[in-house]
UniProtKB/TrEMBL annotation:
Pfam families: Methyltransf_3. Belongs to the class I-like SAM-binding methyltransferase superfamily. Cation-dependent O-methyltransferase family. This is caffeoyl-CoA O-methyltransferase. Keywords: Lignin biosynthesis, Methyltransferase, S-adenosyl-L-methionine, Transferase. Coiled coil: none annotated. GO terms for molecular function: caffeoyl-CoA O-methyltransferase activity. Pathway: Aromatic compound metabolism; phenylpropanoid biosynthesis. Gene3D superfamilies: Vaccinia Virus protein VP39. One of its GO terms (biological process) is lignin biosynthetic process. Its EC number is 2.1.1.104.
Length: 146
């Protein structure tokens, strides 16, 4: 017997972003597996954590949100993602600026660059996960929940 129970929870402030992908999900007949939450990410994660059944129930999470709050997302995701699950963070190389000397970085890139470097260092020291930095696109960090 094969059981496939998969639910995908999507959180975004902009419903239009979610709706852009709807034609594909409808065409592949998986639209019913998506749970869209139109809300700020931290609020929706807190709401998910209010239901104890959600704690440790997620297999995978992909975070691409405001860079200032990545550490807050991380703490919440550690409660939601099961041991052995995967958390992926986007934009970890920030257009390569994380490896550049400060004086070579454009002013507009500096505020997020600082937060990204700080979060990258935090992840590297976090004993609750193992990480792999992948230089794909703008860089992703894959975290295996221990």
């Amino acid at each position: 017997m094969c059981v496939n129970i998969m639910q995908i929870t999507v959180t975004d402030l902009d419903r239009h972003t979610y709706e852009m992908g709807l034609p594909v999900t409808k065409k592949t007949n998986v639209e019913h597996k998506f749970n869209f939450i139109q809300s700020p990410a931290l609020s929706s994660l807190d709401e998910l954590l209010n239901d104890n059944d959600n704690r440790g129930s997620f297999d995978f999470a992909f975070i691409d949100a405001d860079k200032v709050s990545y550490q807050k997302y991380h703490e919440r995701m550690l409660e939601l993602v099961k041991v052995g699950g995967i958390i992926v963070y986007d934009n970890r190389l920030w257009f390569g600026t994380v490896a550049m000397p400060e004086e070579c970085v454009r002013e507009a890139m500096k505020p997020n660059r600082h937060h990204i470097i700080e979060f990258n260092n935090f992840l590297a020291a976090d004993t609750r996960i193992q990480i792999s930095q992948v230089p794909l696109g703008d860089g992703i960090t894959i975290c295996w929940r221990l």
